[in-house]
Amino acid sequence: MRDVAILGVGMTPFGRLDENDLLDLLSSASLRAMEDAGIGDTLIDAVYVANMGGGILNHQTGIASALVDNLALLPAAADLVENGPASGASAVKNGVLAVASGYYDFVLVVGGEKMRDVTGWRATDFVATLTHPYAEYIYGVSLPGMAGMFAKLYMDKYDIKPEHLAMVAMKNQENGILNPYAHIQMKISMEGMIETPDSIVNNSYVAKPLRLFDCCPVSDGAAAVILCPADRVKDFGKPLIKVAGFGQATDTHTLAERDDPTDLKAVTMACNQAYKRAGITAKDIQVAELHDAFTILEIAESEHAGLFAKGEAKKALEAGETKIKGSLPINPSGGLKARGHPVGATGVAQIVDLTWQLRGEAGPRQVENHDVGLTVNFGGFGNNVVAFVLRRES
Amino acid sequence: MRDVAILGVGMTPFGRLDENDLLDLLSSASLRAMEDAGIGDTLIDAVYVANMGGGILNHQTGIASALVDNLALLPAAADLVENGPASGASAVKNGVLAVASGYYDFVLVVGGEKMRDVTGWRATDFVATLTHPYAEYIYGVSLPGMAGMFAKLYMDKYDIKPEHLAMVAMKNQENGILNPYAHIQMKISMEGMIETPDSIVNNSYVAKPLRLFDCCPVSDGAAAVILCPADRVKDFGKPLIKVAGFGQATDTHTLAERDDPTDLKAVTMACNQAYKRAGITAKDIQVAELHDAFTILEIAESEHAGLFAKGEAKKALEAGETKIKGSLPINPSGGLKARGHPVGATGVAQIVDLTWQLRGEAGPRQVENHDVGLTVNFGGFGNNVVAFVLRRES
Q1: Number of A:B CB contacts under 8 A?
Q2: Overall number of domains in chain A
Q3: Confidence of residue A191 (pLDDT cuts 50, 70, 90)
Q4: Would you tell me which residues 206-235 of chain A have a C-beta closer than 8 angstroms to some C-beta of chain B?
């Protein structure tokens, strides 16, 4: 088992990218990561593409093979990995295993999604292909619907107010303004989001209690990393960002079958595996990129990852602890909420952003303590979660 | 790097399976492999699903997560791997890397496809999503069309007659009759396939010079293997079938960009990588499962894999060398031609069939020399090829 490190990272801006098709986005992010690594096109011997919707949204398959040709990386091995919205972290995991095994030395992992090829209900229907076909999908269950049900239960259980959700949204959109790659560049205020008896706000319900500004946008985009054996990083003159640990765990397909639907078991298990492999505990995490497809998920994941005790994340929010200048910054990139959520790209983008933080290359959104960080990529509605711990060494 | 072995194998019958959905097929093959391994449901720590059309054909994503739940394997890690028609072998490769890395011990790899949910041109259109979207697809290029062009060039170059293609079809359908898992159970004769000036045959052209009986059927089905560290096999009382080597190589997306479109470079490279890792040469191969989606491919792959010199496979066919009782049996299972081609399943099914041969468990289709075998899984039109060498040891 070899130690694996992140040699290079890159991403496209996320957003509505009408000029680019899926292969353009994957290629662009890959070239940026290759340029960052300073690796050229002869050393890469395996490529993983993370993507969920190539078939449904873009009527394309075999995109990994197309990519290696487009990047002039032939005859590198190439596969696509799909794990719903956690496809990105799953692909990175498989790249890590490929390098750890000793079979491959330099591996490109690139996640991307071209979601704006479809409009309106079709994007929601695409994501709903993750739900159980007979127990959920045919009854019209969607991911926002699941998140709404979850939010209601979680907020009741831990006395979380709509204002707490709004604090997550405000924080992440504020961070997004500092991130040139973020889809949503817009400052929002509490007054604009929460109704009072005297106000009308432009923030309609999507799935009660979640409103528009509690949900991530539908984005196009791609993100890429180059993995290699940790002992090869010095040859390239790059900082050593080690994949200290990873974890992956699954849970029931339907929410209804969980003993306690407010318990995101797979988040806890995936994070604990990652901590154990890294030889750390949750207390050692200094910065985290969490999967805030809905604001409630940032709160719930931060608690299930052990960063805060159950019910305590709201206090950290109130105190500003999770802001960029706080004691435990969460989603300094802006998260899915502001950076956007091209589903196949997200898990890779989290690792790209965290790498920039650990290298000290995050510009105006740089956090202060930056040696050990966590990413959580949340598939389905928490039925397949992948976590990474990255650590800066040297 | 740990040695990896195949502990258990299983598959569903292939064919038109109207009673079963994709998850049923994946589950059934998995349970058969788990039963064969004698492993129960507590040891498996990672699952790979190979599938190409879940999105396009079945409007489902996240099927790997659904499977671990359905099989009561929670919280095992689960990912889907897609590499077109070579998805099966790609998923096995990733399972092998997972075990070789030391991170996972017991890994289930299951490939499946539910193709008969769509009918007529939709199945061909689905497979055509592998072609280049602007250089091929929009002009109506399909995989049978590519195979027809390739067949014309290859037959001209090496003086291969329609009778040679028919010999492949007859051999594989004869083998398929001995295989209870095969989709097509029908003996065919040369007279029924090749037109003479005095005859009319019920074997119309699909893509000249390829006729109906030169093409594999559109099938439903699934196949599964359990992988583990080679030194754990004895604990289960199973024969040691080692993954002696694997290879994977890519080629240009479009046929038009290849210097010589009759040169299936990726087949040669993938096989040579596999031979090198296994410490053997092509001469050591005693039995092979090749990707005969079209009869011409069995001939061309056997030559590109080095089993015969270029232009010599037709002589082996004439002499019956590639029949079950011949000196180098090819596709004793019936191949894609008779067993069928549920695309995600095929690469796994090749390994299942070869394992049965190496164990001596292939019943009436058992070959005589059975210690070292080859599989070739052919993605796109040869733009992503995965080969395995399996060896019986002890």
Answers
A1: 185
A2: 1
A3: confident
A4: none
**Chain A CB contacts of B68 below 8 Å:** 250
Instruction: Please enumerate in sequence order all residues whose Cβ is within 8 A of that of A8, keeping only pairs 6 or more positions apart, or say none.
Output: A33, A34, A35, A36, A37, A38, A39, A225, A226, A238
Average pLDDT over residues A128-154: 96
Which of B44, B61, B255, B259 to mutate against chain A (most A CBs within 10 Å)? B61
Please provide the size of chain A in residues. 394
Q: What one-character DSSP code corresponds to residue A130?
A: T
Query: What distance in Å separates the CA atoms of residue B64 and residue A82, rounded to the nearest whole number?
Result: 9
Amino acid, res. A318: E
Facing residue for B84 by CB, picked from A62, A81, A100: A62
Does some domain include residue A177?
no
> Domain for residue B231, yes or no?
yes
For residue B74, being part of any structural domain is answered with yes
Structure-block tokens of residue B371: 């210690």
Residue numbers of the domain that contains B100: 4-119+218-236
Instruction: Sort strands B372-379 and B220-229 into parallel, antiparallel or unpaired.
Output: unpaired
Q: Which of residues 117-146 of A touch B (CB under 8 A)?
A: 129-130, 132-133
Give the C-alpha separation, A128 to A135, whole Å.
12
- Nearest CA among A19, A10, A20, A109 for reference residue A64: A109
Instruction: Find the mean pLDDT for residues A84-98.
Output: 98
Cβ of residue B98 closer than 8 Å to a chain A Cβ? yes
Nearest to residue B361, comparing CAs of B392, B325, B388? B392
Instruction: Calculate the average pLDDT of chain A.
Output: 96
Q: How far is B270 from chain A (nearest CA, A)?
A: 9
Which of B47, B59, B79, B258 should be substituted to probe chain A, the one whose Cβ sees the most A Cβ atoms within 10 Å? B79
**Per residue in A55-69, pLDDT tens?**
999 999 999 999 999
Name the least confident of A179-193, A194-208, B61-75, B97-111.
A194-208
B63 belongs to a structural domain:
yes
Q: What is the pLDDT of residue B104?
A: 98
Name the stretches of chain B with pLDDT < 50.
Answer: none
Question: Mind listing the pLDDT tens digit for each residue in B11-70?
Answer: 999 999 999 999 999 999 999 999 999 999 899 999 999 999 999 999 999 999 999 999
Determine the Cα angle at B215 with ends B112 and B168, to 5°: 110
Residue A387, chain B, CB below 8 Å: the answer is no
A87 to chain B: nearest residue by CA? B79
Task: State percent of chain A over pLDDT 70.
Answer: 99
Please report the beta strands in chain A, taking only residues with DSSP state E, as ranges in sequence order: 4-11, 46-50, 77-82, 107-114, 205-207, 210-211, 220-229, 240-250, 287-289, 372-379, 384-393
Contact criterion met (CB < 8 Å) for A79 and B81? yes
CATH number of the domain within which A78 lies: 3.40.47.10
Q: Are residues B33 and B10 in contact, defined by beta-carbon separation less than 8 angstroms?
A: yes
Q: Which residues of A touch B73 (CB under 8 A)?
A: 250
Q: Does B249 touch chain A (CB under 8 A)?
A: yes
C-alpha B26: how far from chain center: 16
pLDDT tens digits, A7-54: 999 999 999 999 999 999 999 999 999 999 999 989 999 999 999 999
